[in-house]
Specification:
This is F-box domain-containing protein. It comes from Urochloa decumbens. This protein has 370 residues and is of the alpha/beta class. Strand 9, helix 12 and strand 10 form a beta-alpha-beta unit. Helix 7 runs parallel beside helix 8 and helix 8 packs parallel to helix 10. The chain is elongated.
Length: 370
């Protein structure tokens, strides 16, 4: 009996302590709670705050101002445990149409972008980091619906940055001459329209006239990149840029001069690890108006992403083969590999992804655990 009484006393003590802790948490005002929550990553708010007490749960779910600027950063290990796409959709939903900025790392795909443009029509800042499930097709569809965008980041997004084919209305009487001018095939002339090959960044420049800040970060600099100035044409259409960061980009002197001539309002330029750029006197003269200039060899201590060692020297590998079959089969692709090369035939997954997220949102937060 004495042992049982002592156990009961300890249990009552624990209940009193837990009640005191709940009273302390419930006693904080909404403004105080929001000030605390604003210091947290929104992943922590979604996965932990809801479980503390009623007042915390109410502040996290019913205050759209908390979700006006969403930040969802984290390392790759978290991505394996959580459905970050579903979390991103839930965060945007809680904003109630007031979301103005979204920053996601390992979060989001084409389906999420479709949901974002529906729920956040006034978005001004979009930062995507390591979002490899976002494609050129999905991104271009989304960015056309974001005319108010002022800040854009595409860092380590390996599947964004290519070219897409666009149908452009011909304003010329002689469509054939226009096709010839653009170096297009006669088959690209379709009923008064022509198919034009546009850079993804060129579409950004045309769709987002208010864009002021653009950040494009690659994993590492590789001197073997043969299409060195492939991003220049698109960036040159962003005439209103005030700041530009190109990290580990293959841009050359000629390409950088084109960008500088096309962006007269540029105040901040960061071209660290862009080792194809040789800052000669002519280029330094063009950069004299830039207030903040970071050159290729400048330190990367303040760079907020992982820095990889650049490949600055091209070494041609010598192929030694003593059999004629090596030359006969060197470029012989079997018919089995055709599916891997036929990337145009894959159907769009926007609708299926959006349905998946819509079904997920009303459920308990435990559904975000994989």
């Amino acid at each position: 009996m004495p042992f049982r009484s002592a156990r009961r006393r300890r249990a009552r003590r624990r209940r009193r302590d837990a009640a005191a802790e709940r009273d302390w948490a419930d006693g904080l005002g909404t403004d105080t709670l929001l000030a605390i929550f604003h210091r947290l990553d929104h992943i922590d708010v979604l996965t932990a705050v809801d479980n503390v007490c009623t007042s915390w749960r109410h502040a996290a779910r019913e205050e759209p101002t908390l979700w006006r600027r969403i930040t969802m950063r984290g390392h790759k290990g978290i991505m394996r445990r959580l459905n970050r796409g579903g979390l991103a959709c839930e965060a945007v939903r809680r904003a109630g149409g007031q979301c103005e900025a979204f920053c996601g790392e390992y979060a989001g795909d084409d389906g999420f972008l479709m949901y974002l443009i529906e729920q956040a029509p006034n978005l001004k800042s979009l930062r995507l980091i390591s979002c490899n499930d976002v494609s050129d097709e999905g991104f271009t569809v989304a960015v056309r619906e974001l005319p108010l965008l002022e800040e854009l980041e595409l860092s380590l997004c390996d599947n964004v940055g290519g070219f897409v084919m666009e149908l452009v209305l011909s304003l010329f009487d002689n469509v054939g001459s226009y096709v010839e001018e653009l170096n297009l095939s006669p088959w690209d002339n379709v009923g008064g329209f022509v198919k034009e090959r546009l850079s993804v960044y060129e579409i950004v420049g045309k769709a987002c006239p208010k864009l002021k800040h653009f950040r494009l970060s690659n994993k590492l600099f590789d001197v073997r990149d043969w299409n060195k100035d492939k991003d220049v044409r698109g960036i040159a259409t962003m005439h209103g840029l005030h700041s530009l960061q190109l990290f580990s980009n293959a841009v050359t002197n000629e390409g950088l001069e084109t960008i500088l001539d096309s962006c007269p309002n540029l105040e901040c330029l960061d071209i660290r690890h862009c080792f194809n750029v040789d800052m000669d006197d002519a280029l330094l003269l063009k950069c004299a108006r830039i207030e903040t200039l970071r050159l290729p060899d400048h330190p990367t201590d303040d760079y907020d992403l992982e820095v990889h060692s650049p490949i600055r020297m091209f070494v041609e590998e010598e192929v030694i083969c003593y059999s004629d079959c090596c030359y006969n089969n060197r470029y012989d692709y079997s018919s089995d590999s055709g599916d891997d090369l036929d990337f145009y035939g894959e159907p769009s997954r926007f609708e299926s992804d959006l349905d998946k997220y819509d079904k997920m949102l009303p459920q308990s937060m435990r559904t975000f655990l994989k």
